[in-house]
Every structure is written in C-alpha cells, then in structure tokens.
Amino acid sequence: MKKVLILLFVVFIAYSSVIAQERDSALVAKVFKHGLNDAKSLFTSPVQWSGRQWLTAGAVTTATAAVVLWADEPVYDFANKMHTPSRDVFFKYAEPLGNNYAFAVMGITLATGIIAKNNYHVETAFIAAESYLFTGLITQAVKITAGRKRPNADGTTHPHDWEGPFFNGNSFFSGHTSTAFAVATVYAQRYKHQPWVPIVSYSLAMLGGLQRIYGNRHWAGDVLMGAAVGTATGLLLSKQWQKNPIRFYPIATNGGAGLSMVYQIQ
What we know:
Elements: H1 2-22, H2 25-43, H3 51-81, H4 85-94, H5 100-116, H6 119-146, H7 175-190, H8 196-214, H9 220-242, E1 246-253, E2 256-263
Antiparallel strand pairs: 1-2
Helix pairs in contact: 1-6, 3-9, 5-6, 6-7, 6-9, 7-8, 7-9, 8-9
C-alpha cells in the first residue's frame, strides 16, 4: 500500500504542476472529473460486461480455483527444487519488475514525451500511472479480504491457509504481478503498431510473476489472478483514454519545459 500512496502523491504533484501552468479552474475540474470517471468505469465495469466478458471472467476464476486446489503445492515444490546460485542472482534482479522498474519506465516515457514534444508518449505515461494506481488499490482490497498466507510465512508451506479479512495473510493476489501486467498492457496497447513492444512488455511482466513464485513470495494461483486483473485494468483504461477529450501537450519556454492541457470540444 505504501507504493500505491507514493504513486498517488507523484500523480497529484504532476497534475498540480500542469494546473499551475494552465490556471484554468474549469479545465482543472475536468481533469479530476475524468480521473473519477475512469475509476467509476473500472469499478462498475462488471455491471456492463457482455456475455463474452462474463465468460472470460468465469474461465479465469475457474482456472485460478483449479490452480489453488491442485497445482499450487506441486508448483511450490518444483520451484524450490530449481534453486541454484546463478538463478538466485537472475531472479533477484527480476524482483523489481512490478514496482521500481515500472516507475522507471513511466518516468522515462514522460520525460521523453516532454523533451521530444510528443503528446502520445506523455499520455501513455499518465495512462500507465493510472493503471498502476487503480490496480494497486484493487489488489490491496482483495489481499485484506482474502487473508491468504504467503508460502514463506513462518510455519507455512500449505497453500490452503486462508484466514479471512484483516488477518496477517496478504498473498492473494500478487501485487507485483498485477501492477506489472497493468503497466505492460498499457504499453502493449498503446504501441501495438510496433510488434516488439507487446512481446517485450508481456515477457517482462511474466518474468516478474515467475520471480514471485521462484522466490516463495506467492503461490502460482496468486500470480495467475494478478496477471488477469492487471491485464483487464490496463485494457479498460487504454480504451477509456481514447474517449478522453483532455490532451496533454509538452511545451518549452525560456523558463524550462513542462506540460499544457487542451480540452477538445466534442
């Protein structure tokens, strides 16, 4: 939750800097209204799902339940037999894929957009940050409710230890995996015209999920559900942004570089 709050603060500062430049209270209100609308669309989306979407959600839920019931323990045993010094080093550097590396990619994209005066890159950074934030909030809410013990918890090697709301368990589902896929999906959608981007984005996100299993931080079912939730969030927000009348444009003045906002009249 700490990382989510940090991101929220960063996004708030970014919006504040834009607001300070624009000095338009009506436009500022539209920006925050859009963010609230995105949150509303995300959290109420199941009500508007089509039959195909409900079928997909049911398939993912069923697959996760099957993994939890029958595959979590064998996967845990297999992962623990695979440890070697070289693999330990490799997966050690893969661990930040769900947080630090994601922050770095978003920051680089935003900076590149501002320097190159590329509106598309700037928008992508904001969408990815929004996807990370909302996915983090959903993940924490489910963790608190489920109360599943992690595989590396004291005295725990059994995948069926679920203590329920407000207990110490916080394994289900994987936050690193969900946020990694939330950011990866935004980049995969926004840059799908470059075939290598979706491949690299999802490969890195998957590697982050595998690290959580290899490092005994999560069960396989935690990673599977985290990947599904992150992907769904990234897809929804990417589509929502296409309807967004607010656009961010990089600007350069004698005082330095920054962002301006333009509200497109429909």
